[in-house]
Amino acid sequence: MDGLITGRLTGIPESRVDRNRRPYMVARMRANAGDGSSIPVNIVAFDSAPCAVLRSLSEGDAIALRGSFTPKVWIDRQEQSHAVLDLVAQQVLAAPNLSDL
Known about the structure:
Elements: E1 2-9, E2 14-17, E3 23-32, E4 38-45, H1 48-55, E5 62-75, E6 81-95
Parallel strand pairs: 4-6
Antiparallel strand pairs: 1-3, 1-5, 2-3, 3-4, 5-6
């Protein structure tokens, strides 16, 4: 599925290198759900433009991501199920200064 997701980063994006020595970025965010709850989103970016934006961000920064995502279910220790999304970011729009307001 492709879509646009907005939220705030819940950590500092990390730069990594794959086994072919190509750089990529990983990050996590929380997206607001329609019922007032939030959904964790695992982000990975391979293209240079989204990687550059993610590299410049910090925890708590507001972001909007466009890309393909996969809905998944995570089961905690109490065997409760929770929604989670895995997203391959193709575009990242950020407002890093909004977290300071």
